[in-house]
Amino acid sequence: MTMMTTITLSPHVLRFSRNRTALLSCAILACVAFACFFGPVWLAQDPSRSDWAALSLPPTLLGGHWFGTDELGRDLFVRTLIGGRVSLEVGLLATLVACSIGVAYGACAGYFGGRIDALMMRVVDIMYAVPYMLIAILMMTLFGRAFYLVVLTISAFSWLDMARVVRGQTLSLRTREFVDAARSIGVSGPMIVVRHIVPNLIGVVVVYATVMAPGIVLTESVLSFLGLGVQEPMTSWGVLIEDGAQKLEAMPWLLLCPAAMLCATLYCIGFVGDALRDALDPREH
Amino acid sequence: MFTYALRRMLWAMPTMLGVITACYLLLHATPGGPFDSEKQLSAATLANLDAKYHLSEPLWRQYLLYLNALIHGDLGASYRYVDWSVNDLVAKALPVSVGVGGASIPIALILGVSLGVAAAVRRDRWIDRFVMLLGNSGNVVPPFVLGPVLVWIFAIMLKTREGHGWLPAGGWGDGAWSHRLLPIALLVLINVSTIARVMRASMIDVLGSPFIRTARAKGLPPRIVVWRHALKPALMPVVSLLGAISISSITSAVVTESVFSLPGLGQLVVNGAINRDYTLVLGIVVLTTVAAVLFNLFVDLAYALLDPRIRY
Amino acid sequence: MALLEVEQLSVSFDRRNGPAVDAVRNVSFALDAGMTLGIVGESGSGKSQSAMALLGLLPPNARVAGSASYDGQDMLRLDRRTMNKLRGDRIAIVFQDPMTSLNPFLTIERQLTEPLQTHRRCSRREARRCAIEALERVRIPDAARRIGMYPHEFSGGMRQRVTIAMALMTRPRLLIADEPTTALDVTVQAQIVDLLRELTCDTGMAMILITHDMGVVAGLCDDVLVMYQGRAVEHADAASLFAAPTHPHTISLMNARPPLKRPSIESVPAEGPR
C-alpha cells in the first residue's frame, strides 16, 4: 500500500512548520485541549462546589479564581474547562463520524459513477436544502439528549461537504493508471476503493476535516445555547455562554470568559486548517 | 431559458416531497404518541384526541391525510395549543421573523457588495485590511456571543440621560424600530463578513481578466470599468452564495430570536420542540424547507439570467 | 517629425522574493505617421511588454524607464487622467485572444459604443449608427441585427473583427496590434491580415504589429524590429530584412516556418541568465 500512495508527507510537513501562526495555533489548541481534559483533575476542584467567601467575583489572578465566580460561588475557570471537555469531545467525535460517513459516501459515489453517482448526489442536494438546525432541534426533542445522540445528530448533517469533495477527488483519481493496474490483476471494486483510492484522499480529507471542525463545534454550542444540547449535569461552552448572557448586566465575565475560550479555539482550528491547505496545495509554491 | 427554468422547478418538487416525507416519518417513528407523557387522561378525552388527530389510523393513511391538508395550505392543528391551528400560530410569528430577517438580507447584500468592491479596488489600503479582518472574524465570533455583546454595549453600557439603555435589550414591542435595530444589526453582521469576503476575492479575480484590460485600454474612466464591466461577472459567486446563506439564516434567525426574545418562527419552533408539539414543529420545518427550496430555485434562475452565456 | 519616438525603453518587474526581472532593455525605435512597424520575437522576448508600457497597461509591480514621445508628450510620464484620454482615442490596441478580450456580460453594441460615448460625447443613437458602420467595414454580415448579440455568439474570427472594429471607432492615429492572429485558425489569419492592410491603407493609420510570425510581418510591415531577450537585436525595413538578415535570431525566426526542403534544426546560443 505504501508503494501505491502518491503523497509523500515530508515536504508538506516542512512547509506547514514554516508557518509560524499555524504553529502557534497548534500550540494554543494543544494547551486548551490539555487544560480541558486534565486540568480539572489536576486542580482537583469540584465545579459545583460553592466558595461562599467569593460570590460573584470578577476574574482575579491572585485569589485563585482566574475566571471569577458566579452568584453561587462556583469557580468559572473549572466550569469552563469541564465545559470545554464536553464541547471538544462532541466536536472531535462528531467530526470523526461525519468524516467517515462523508468519505465512504463520496468515495462510493465517485467510484461507481454514472447513475448511482447521480442518484447519490441528488440525495446530497436534497439534504443541502434542508434547514438542518430545525431538524437537529427536532431530533434532539424526539430522541433525547444523551451524549452519543448529540454526536449523531450533529454528524448527520455535517458530512455533506466532505462527501462532495471526496466524490470529486475520487472521480479524478479513478481514471489514473494505478486503478487500471489493480483492476487488471483482478482486484474487486470495493477493494479498489478501500485500498487504493482512500489512501490518496488523505490529504484532502485532513484539510476538509479542519474546515468542518469549527462548524461542528459551533453547532454543538448553538444547540446548547438553545437549551437543546447535552443534558444536565453535563455542561458545555454553549450552556455557560447562555447562562452568562442571562446575567450579563451584573457579571459580564460569565459570558466573556467561556466565549473567549470558544472563539480562540475556533480561530486556532481555522488557522491550522488554512495552513494545512496551503502546505498541501501544490500550486502555491 | 424557459426549459431551464421548467427543469429546475420540476426537480424542486421531489426535493420538497422528500424532505416532508422524511420529517413526517421521523416524527412518527419515535415510540409513543404525543400525549403519552401527559397526566392520565380520561378515556373519553383520549378518544376525542384520537379522532381529532387521526391517531388510530394506519400510518400511510395519516401521511396521505397530512399531504392532502398540506396541498390545501393547512398545516394541521397544534398538539399543545389545542384551540389554535398551526397556521394561526405561524401567521402570528411570521411577521416578526420576516420583519427582522427580511430586512437584514438586502442590507447585508448591499453593504457586503460595496465593501467587497471597495476592498478589491483599493488593495492593501485600510479598507482592504478591514474587510479581510471582518471576513476572517465572521466565522469565529458566533452569533450567540455577538448578540449578547451587542445587548451589553447598546442596552446596558450606553445609557440615556434617563438611565435606560440606548436600545431595548429585547422583546418585540409591536415592531417598533428601536426593538428591531439590534436584531437586524446582528443578522447583518453575520452575513456581511462572508459576502464582503467573497465579493472581494471575486472582484480581484475579475479585475485581472483580459476583458478588463481591454476596457482600461479603451480609456474608460475607472468607475465605469468597475461598475459596468467588472461588477456583473464578479457578482456571480455572491449570487450562488445566497443559496447557502438562506439556509444558514434559518439557524441565525433561531439564535437571534432567542437572544432578543422575539416571538418569531424560531422561538416558536424551539418552544414547540421543548413542549413536544409535533405538528407545530413539523409544520414550521415544512414551511421553511419549502421556502428554502424556492429561494434556491430563484437564485439558480437569477444566476442564469445574469450570465448571458447560460441560456440553453 | 515622427509620430512616436521611443528612446531607451526599459521595463523590469519587481518580485517579492528574488531580484527584479528585466523584461525589456533599452529598446529604441521611431514610427512615422501611416507607417507599419513590426516587432517580432519569440515568446518572452519582451515585445508585448514594450507595447503595454507605452499605454500604461503594465501590472503595479512594473518599473518603466526611458522615454516615449508621442505628439510632444512623454507617454511614460503622463498622469492617469491624460493617459485615459489618450487611450482608446488617439491610440488603440487590439489584443491577442478574442475569446477573452471581450466582456462576455455586455452586448457588442455596448462595447462598441463606449469609446465614442467616452471620448467623443456622442449620443446613444449616433454611436450605434457608427458602430453598425464599423461592423460593416470589418465585413461582419448582417451588422444591424448582430450588434445586439453577446460575444459568445460569434466565432473566433468574427470576434477578432469586432475587436478591431472596436479599436477603430474613434479613428485613432496609431493602432497597436498585439499578436492579433496568433489565436486564430490559419485561414482566418489570412483574412485578418488582409483586413488590417486594407484598414491601414484606407485610414492612413500607423500601426505597431507585434507577432512571432514572420509570414504576417512580410504581408503587412514597412519596418521590422527584432527583439531577443528584451533587447532590440535588429532594426531594418522589411525589404532589407528579408533579403539579408544579419542577426542569427532573425535568421532562426525566419526558419521557424516549416521549410519544404531543409530538415535541420539550428539553435542560437543564449546570452546570459534569464
Describe what is shown at a glance.
The complex is a heterotrimer of chains A (285), B (312) and C (274). Chain B is an all-alpha fold and 312 residues long.
Give the tags.
heterotrimer, B: mainly alpha, 11 helices, C: 274 residues, alpha/beta, Rossmann fold, six-stranded mixed beta sheet, four-stranded antiparallel beta sheet
The protein's oligomeric status is heterotrimer
The major sheet of chain C is characterized as: 6 strands, mixed
CATH architecture of the largest domain in chain C, please?
3-Layer(aba) Sandwich
Please give the count of helices of chain B. 11
Most extensive protein-chain contact, per-chain counts: A-B, 40 and 42 residues
Number of strands of chain B: 0
Q: Termini of chain B, distance in Å?
A: 6 Å
Strand content of chain B: under 5%
Order of strands across the main sheet of chain C: 6-7-8-3-9-10
Q: Give the proportion of residues in helices of chain B.
A: over 70%
Q: How large is the radius of gyration of chain C?
A: 19 Å
Task: Give a verbal description of the structure.
The complex is a heterotrimer of chains A (285), B (312) and C (274). Chain A has helices at residues 10-18, 20-43, 76-112, 114-129, 132-143, 147-158, 160-174, 177-184, 189-200, 202-225, 237-246, 253-280. Chain A is mostly helical and 285 residues long. Chain A is elongated and about 75 Å long. Chain B is flat, with a radius of gyration of 24 Å. Chain B contains eleven helices and no strands. Chain B is 75% helix and 0% strand. Chain B has helices at 2-29, 43-53, 59-71, 86-121, 126-138, 143-157, 177-207, 210-217, 222-260, 265-274, 278-306. With 312 residues, chain B is an all-alpha fold. With 274 residues, chain C is of the alpha/beta class. Chain C has two domains: 1-90 and 174-257, 3-Layer(aba) Sandwich (Rossmann fold), CATH 3.40.50.300; 99-169, no CATH class. A six-stranded mixed beta sheet of chain C has the order 6-7-8-3-9-10, sandwiched between helices. In chain C, strands 2-1-4-5 form a four-stranded antiparallel beta sheet, with helices on one face. In chain C, helix 4 crosses helix 5 (124-137) and helix 4 packs parallel to helix 7. Chain C is globular. The chains are: A mainly alpha (285), B mainly alpha (312), C alpha/beta (274). Chains A and B meet through helix 4, helix 5, helix 10, helix 11 and helix 12 of A and helix 1, helix 6, helix 9, helix 10 and helix 11 of B.
